[in-house]
Design brief:
By secondary structure, this protein is an alpha/beta fold. The protein has helices at residues 2-23, 40-52, 55-58, 70-78, 89-97, 151-161, 177-185, 201-207, 222-227, 268-280, 282-286, 310-318; strands at residues 27-32, 60-65, 84-88, 110-126, 141-143, 171-173, 191-196, 213-215, 232-237, 250-263. Strands 1, 2, 3, 4, 5, 6, 7, 8, 9 and 10 form a ten-stranded mixed sheet that branches. Helix 6 links the parallel strand 5 (141-143) and strand 6 (171-173). It binds glutamic acid. Glutamic acid is lined by residues 34-35, 38-40, 69-70, 88, 119, 149-151, 195-197.
Length: 322
């Protein structure tokens, strides 16, 4: 009886210890993304899928977290809550140079890994609102982005471009992109800004309801581009949103790039593994979202303003990209 009990006890103990002993070697890293209807969320999924195929080789596993967006991700990476974050190139620049949300506090520990898909500043309005240019936003209820999002900064720049004051000239709603489409369809707002890759679920959702909507062109952006080095002219292909009432096949606006960032505290091995798996399997990666169709190994090293992480540099040198 005693022997049997001992055997059962030993077996139970072995069962308990076995998985934890093997798991102890695996390092878990989390990638901060954005709202689930954006492109960051599936992008985090695509990156983790690539590296998790080699989980045994690298002894690491990547998971994804839905977050408030670029600014949240940069801050979470810097304070150690997340290992990686996806962030707009303009936000990366501002953090490194101590501007906007980081005014006077240059973030020395931020590191760039690579850049990903282009994102465009997308202003989507109900037809009934009469908003056909950024100047028409005057007096309207506009979703300009939650604190923590990338787009809040871009909305503010677009408002300044139109000569509008966020506090006096519009009714600013600081809502998340994930809630904005239904707010537009419920007529609780007249328009919202989203800085995002195309196609994406939020804009599709915003165009799919009862209320007729369109994307508002922002064509005159020369002064913005002259003032801020991280902005470029961009176009939103309307083929992605057949339910929008726009007549043109592409809508002019300005844009940035999505980038992957980390902290100088993260080990070279981990950053190397992620970089290598995405770059070595770029053709497979590109199939995971239509917004990646323009990616090349060369342009994925552009638009970065934080110092490159040494783990990424190790791969770029090996691959002859640097
Ligand atoms: N660009 C947005 C932000 O930084 C997120 C877009 C997305 O989730 O695809 O907040």
């Amino acid at each position: 009886m005693k022997k049997v009990l001992l055997l059962v006890l030993c077996f139970g103990l072995a069962l308990l210890l076995a998985p934890s002993a093997s798991m102890a070697r695996i390092q878990f890293v989390t990638i901060g993304t954005g709202g689930v209807t954006g492109v960051y969320y599936p992008t985090g999924g695509a990156i983790s899928r690539m590296v998790n195929k080699k989980a045994k080789i690298y002894n690491m596993k990547a998971t994804v977290e839905s977050t408030g967006g670029s600014v949240f991700n940069i801050n979470a990476v810097l304070n150690g809550d997340l290992e990686f974050g996806i962030a707009q190139s303009d936000r990366q620049y501002q953090a490194v140079n101590g501007m906007k949300e980081w005014k006077g506090k240059a973030q020395k520990k931020l590191r760039a890994v690579f850049s990903i898909h282009p994102e465009s500043i997308t202003l989507i309005a109900s037809d009934a609102s009469g908003i056909n240019s950024i100047a028409d936003m005057k007096g309207k209820r506009i979703g300009i982005g939650n604190p923590g999002s990338g787009q809040l900064g871009n909305s503010r720049d677009a408002l300044a471009l139109a000569g509008l004051d966020e506090k006096k000239d519009i009714q600013a709603e600081y809502i998340k992109a994930v809630e904005a489409a239904s707010a537009l369809q419920d007529e609780r707002i007249d328009a919202f800004f989203y800085t995002v890759g195309h196609p994406n679920g939020s804009i599709k959702e915003a165009t799919a309801g009862r209320i007729k909507v369109h994307i508002v062109p922002i064509p005159d952006v020369q002064s913005l581009i002259a003032k801020y080095p991280y902005y470029a002219k961009a176009f939103i292909p309307m083929k992605f949103y057949p339910n929008a009432t726009n007549k043109e096949d592409k809508v002019a606006t300005f844009g940035v790039k999505a980038t992957l960032v980390t902290s100088s505290d993260i080990s070279d091995d981990i950053v190397y593994a992620i970089t290598k798996e995405v770059f070595d399997n770029l053709e497979a990666f590109k199939k995971l979202h239509p917004a990646y169709s323009v990616l090349t190994k060369k342009n994925m090293l552009e638009g970065l303003s934080a110092p490159l992480h040494p783990g990424a540099v190790k791969y770029y040198k090996e691959a002859g990209l640097m």
